[in-house]
Every structure is written in C-alpha cells, then in structure tokens.
Amino acid sequence: MPPPLVLEWYPYVVSNPCSREYVWALLPRDVVTNISRSVVKLASFNGNIRSFACTGLLIKWPGAEGTNTVILTSASLVRSRYDHFKIDNNLTIDVFLPPKQHAKGTLVFYHLNTNLAVVSLEKRIHGIRPFDICRKGDLSKPVVAIARKIEAGFLMASKGEVIYGQTCSIYVEKLMLSTCKINKAGIGGPLINFDGAFVGMNHYDGSEVTPFLPRRGIVQILKGEINWRRQSGLSMDILHGVGYRSQIDRRRWPVPEPYWHHDLLGMDKYDLHPHVGRQL
After folding, report:
1. Is 21 domain-assigned?
2. Which tens digit of pLDDT belongs to each residue from 93-151?
3. pTM value?
4. Structural domain boundaries, residue 53
5. Of 168, 187, 171, 195, whose CA–CA distance to 259 is shortest?
6. Does residue 9 carry a pLDDT above 90?
C-alpha cells in the first residue's frame, strides 16, 4: 500500500490511509491543490443540535456580476425533516475549510426538484479556489467523487466511471449515475474528472452506484436564477426558492438520517460513536 499523500502547504493527509483505493496519487498536483481549497464541509444546526452535515463546493455563480463566491451543495442540508417538500428556515449553517477557517453561511437559493442549494458566505474565507463550473467536463473519462470527512474535515475520494442507460432509483429526469462508491458524507460533493473539470454534484441513494446532477443541468438552473433576479431587480443576498418559473415536483427527496462509520471504503458496518465521521 502506498504511503498517504502529504502536501507541504496542507496540514491534513488528503487520503484515507486504510482505503483500498488510492486516488490522490492518480490526480495531477494542481487538481489536488484546487480541490483542497474549494471543497468545504457544511453543517446545519437547530440551536445547538446538528441537523445535517454534508459537503459543498465553492463556485463562481454562472452569470453573476463581479466575483461573488458561493457554495453549491445539497438542499438536504436545509430541508425540513417533517415535510420533505419544504425548507427549514430555523436552521443556521456553519462552513468549515481546514485547517481553521469557519464562517457562517446563508441560504440564498434552493431548487427542490433537483435537490440543490446555494449558500453564501457571511465573511471571506482566505486561500480559496472557487470552481468555474461553466468549464465543460468530459463524461467519457474516469471521474472522482470528492467529500470532506464529517468530523475531522480531511478530504476523501472515490474513483469510477459514468454509467449510461441505467435508471436512477430517485427517478429524477436530470440525474445520471457513476460507479463511484460514496456514502452520506459525500452528499453535495463534486464529481470531477482527472483533468479537474467539474462533472456534477453527487447525491446518495444507498445503492452501489452514485446518482449525480450533471454540470449542464446545474448551470442552466443557476443561470436561469441569475436572469430571474436581474429581471426582478433582486440582489444576490435575497432568498428565492423552489425553482424559478417551475412547478413544484412532488418526487420525494427524503433527508437521510445522519450516521457515523469509520471502516473501509464501501463497507456497511455501523459505528454509532458520535465523534467518528463516516468516511467516503
């Protein structure tokens, strides 16, 4: 087994030393550098009680004026546990980028039909590399699913390929599948190719494959939202939800119950210790 990859400028080992997949050594150094500075951990809280935790990607919002940096993630972060077709407005959001940067996040957009959300930062995070998701990623190449470990915050990765012609169990038209094996820590995390281009955002359905929302669909949704704001005279810090000019789709996107695990990649053995994050 090769030794864990350690970067001089980065204070965490960026791979699971117990994993049977050693992905980081396969990626170009600049791709690893950019990923480590653009993938964040998010957690939502109701008071002092954590509601949900997942991964997010710092991006440049397509079509936005200026240099607004926002976080693309899953709407499961803020979805109500009591009504899956609504957002819980009582939740607060914490954003973490290792080693020590924390910031409060604000929900500025959500699209329930595709289960995506956009979170803005209340203060600047230093040393970041926001992704330009308008850059096309080749779906025919090998892909890598990225996440941050829920508790410790270090990066995790799983490689695979895009699957064609197979139906996703969530039954959402825009979704595709990859053979990357993730778990709930990877919800909202990016799927990239080996060139570092953004391919899509990962979801989770408990199967042996990973549903993801492709880049093209995400860009269309976010550009449409920008156009809607411009036409309505709204700024980027005003919340608008449910999907611009679209009807609410009653397909279920249940909020997965959080759980913890510290075994090897892809295994289903549970460990309920509250301080051990499940690894991707």
Report:
1. no
2. 999 998 889 999 999 889 888 899 999 998 888 899 999 998 887 777 899 999 998 77
3. 0.81
4. 39-129+218-241
5. 187
6. no
